[in-house]
Every structure is written in structure tokens, then in C-alpha cells.
């Protein structure tokens, strides 16, 4: 879907149409969950702090999230997918993989199916979607972002190699900002550069992920569409340009991480009993601290309270911190959530 949360808000409130809109956060604090295309023109994107977003776009309109509405629209879109195939693997509320090799209409053209799905989404929800069509998940995923909004991009088998070679490295699905920066330091700026590296070389620099990078540089991805795939954990982490040393520096970062994790938990209708704080120090040593509760946790403020306690227990970090992360595991799926813990921390 195109700028899903923001597009739903603009659909439901005509006063927001054509204006820069950010969903989530407040003017005082928080993280942008989604930004309209008008806001993106000013450099406002999801996962950006609200304060930074407002500095980039002072006339940005901030609206609260309405997860119940987004979930309802997501279910409506999922029903459209299921008209064509039962092999639907959701990535999030607004995105999914579909295997249409054998589809319910017997259509031979995946491009035609994608166009029909786009049309039905627009007719029934008054929202636009972008589609990527290819012979594996990696190529379809990357193609889906090529011509947003309302795009349809097809990558044929004989086009795949050239398509990947021309991709800027930051456009590769599975390569985040930190990894992209490291690749650029190694002289890897495009798919062609990545393809020139051996698997051994990539594994030396990126561990097990190096084998995945080696394969996608050659347009290879054998992963099937898994309609019943269930995530075992939900988390977020951030590596900092400058090491953090004080609690005053770390608390705002924990707040941002807690908000991102809470957002994903709501999006997936999940909650979890085990909360883990990840700390990586300036010397790259790693420390994790976990706590498991009888009842499940989903709310941002509860996640933040637990993360802060884990930061302080058994003692506050004695070395500079280069990475912080919060992960929720031991997950339960469904609308039920616990706003409070069943016993004190």
C-alpha cells in the first residue's frame, strides 16, 4: 500500500488531502509511524523522531494513530488477495507476498493479476497500492517500490541480472542503513559492485548475512511464499554515530525504540511475555538483559518502563554504548492485551 496509514487518514479526513501529514507521535516527542507523500517531499519518513520531522517541515500536520481502522482496512485488502490465491504471506498490515503461479481464476499473466488486484483495492477502499511482479520474493519486493505511488513494475527473468546490477546498494531489501554504510566503506555502491565480491569475502565482513547478499546480487532467492509464517519475536535496535555514556542520552533512545516495537506489536496484533534489552558497547562486546512476566505486554509505556529497569539492573552500563535494542518474544497473537503486569518489576 502507498503511505498506508497517512493515506487512510487523508481518505477519511478531506481537510488533510494534499497536505504534509505524519501519523503517530506528538509535537513534544514520539516517532513518525507513517508520512504522506507530501511530507516525504520535505524529508519526513517513518521511524523519524517527531521533533526532527517538525524541523524539516514546520507546517507538518500530526495526527494520532488509529490502529483499529488500519487493521480493518488491512483485513479488507487481505480478502481481495485471497480471491486470487491462498498463498498469501503478510509482511505487515500494508504489504504481502502472493504466489499466483496457480491462481483461482486460472490466469496466465501475473502482471494482469497484479493490475486487477490494484484496481479492486482502489475501487473498494479508495486507496492506491503498488505492485512488484517477478519470479522470486526479493525481486518482487524491490520492484514494488520502484514506481510508487500507484506503480506496477515487472522484472522478467532475462531482465533480472541487469535490474539487480543497476540497483543502488541502499535499495536492496535486507540491507539497512548501517549495513549500506559499511558496504560503501568497502567500495560497494551498487548491485554490480556487490556481485563482484566473493561469498567468502562477504561472509568475512557480514557474517551469515554475507551468503544472502551473495545470492541476491545474482537475483537468486529460493524462499517460498509461506502463508502461515509466524514471527517468534518483534524488536528494534539502533546503532549510534557517537557512543552514549549517560542515562540522559540513553533514555530518549529507549523511548523511540519502545514506540517502534509497540507500533509493530499493535500492527501484528501481538503481545509478549519476555522483554530483552540489547546493549553493544564501544568495544563491540554484547550484553543482553531479559525479564519474563506471567502476563503479556504490548503498551509502549510498559515496554519503556521495563527497558529502563533493565538498563539500570543489575547496574547501569559502565562502558560507552554504541547500540541499544528492545525485543519482545514469547509472543501471543490476538486482540487481547495486558495493559499492566501481573506482578511488580
Automatic annotation (TrEMBL):
Residues 1-176 form the UmuC domain. Mg(2+) binds at residue 94. It catalyses: DNA(n) + a 2'-deoxyribonucleoside 5'-triphosphate = DNA(n+1) + diphosphate. It comes from the Bacteria. Its cofactor is Mg(2+). The keyword Cell membrane does not apply. Keywords: Cytoplasm, DNA damage, DNA repair, DNA replication, DNA-binding, DNA-directed DNA polymerase, Magnesium, Metal-binding, Mutator protein, Nucleotidyltransferase, Transferase. Binds 2 magnesium ions per subunit. Coiled coil: none annotated. Its EC number is 2.7.7.7. Its main location: cytoplasm. One of its GO terms (cellular component) is cytosol. It is found in: Cytoplasm. Signal peptide: none annotated. GO terms for biological process: DNA repair; DNA-templated DNA replication; error-prone translesion synthesis; SOS response. The record marks 5 as: Substrate discrimination. InterPro entries: DNA/RNA_pol_sf, DNA_pol_Y-fam_lit_finger_sf, DNA_pol_Y-fam_little_finger, DNA_polymerase-Y, DNApol_IV, PolY_HhH_motif, Rev_trsase/Diguanyl_cyclase, UmuC. Belongs to the DNA polymerase type-Y family. Monomer. This is DNA polymerase IV. It comes from Rufibacter tibetensis.
Amino acid at each position: 500500500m502507498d503511505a498506508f496509514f497517512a493515506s487512510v487518514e487523508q481518505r477519511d479526513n478531506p481537510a488533510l488531502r494534499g497536505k504534509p501529514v505524519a501519523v503517530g507521535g506528538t509535537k513534544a516527542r514520539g516517532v513518525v509511524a507513517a508520512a504522506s507523500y507530501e511530507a516525504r517531499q520535505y524529508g519526513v519518513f517513518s521511524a523519524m523522531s517527531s521533533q526532527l520531522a517538525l524541523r524539516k517541515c514546520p507546517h507538518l500536520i500530526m495526527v494520532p494513530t488509529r490502529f483499529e481502522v488500519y487493521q480493518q482496512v488491512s483485513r479488507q485488502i487481505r480478502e481481495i488477495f485471497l480471491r486470487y490465491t491462498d498463498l498469501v504471506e503478510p509482511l505487515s498490515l500494508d504489504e504481502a507476498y502472493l504466489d499466483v503461479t496457480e491462481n483461482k481464476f486460472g490466469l496466465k499473466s501475473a502482471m494482469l493479476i497484479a493490475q486487477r488486484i490494484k484496481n479492486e483495492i482502489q475501487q473498494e477502499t479508495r486507496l492506491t497500492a503498488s505492485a512488484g511482479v517477478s519470479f522470486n520474493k526479493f525481486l518482487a519486493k524491490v520492484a514494488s517500490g520502484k514506481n510508487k505511488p500507484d506503480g506496477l513494475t515487472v522484472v522478467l527473468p532475462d531482465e533480472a541480472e541487469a535490474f539487480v546490477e543497476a540497483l543502488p546498494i541502499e535499495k536492496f531489501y535486507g540491507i539497512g542503513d548501517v549495513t549500506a554504510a559499511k558496504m560503501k566503506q568497502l567500495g560497494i555502491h551498487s548491485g554490480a559492485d556487490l556481485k563482484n565480491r566473493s561469498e567468502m569475502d562477504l561472509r568475512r565482513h557480514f557474517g551469515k548475512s554475507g551468503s544472502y547478499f551473495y545470492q541476491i546480487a545474482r537475483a537468486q532467492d529460493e524462499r517460498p511464499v509461506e502463508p502461515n509464517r509466524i514471527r517468534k519475536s518483534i524488536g528494534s535496535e539502533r546503532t549510534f554515530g557517537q557512543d552514549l555514556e549517560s542515562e540522559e542520552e540513553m533514555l530518549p533512545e529507549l523511548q523511540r525504540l519502545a514506540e517502534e516495537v509497540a507500533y509493530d506489536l499493535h500492527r501484528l496484533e501481538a503481545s509478549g511475555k519476555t522483554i530483552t534489552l540489547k546493549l553493544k558497547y564501544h568495544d563491540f562486546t554484547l550484553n543482553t538483559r531479559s525479564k519474563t512476566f506471567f502476563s503479556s505486554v504490548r503498551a509502549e509505556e510498559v515496554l519503556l518502563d521495563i527497558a529502563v529497569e533493565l538498563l539500570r539492573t543489575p547496574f547501569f552500563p559502565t562502558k560507552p554504548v554504541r547500540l541499544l535494542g528492545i525485543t519482545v518474544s514469547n509472543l501471543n497473537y490476538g486482540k487481547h492485551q495486558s495493559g499492566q503486569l501481573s506482578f511488580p518489576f
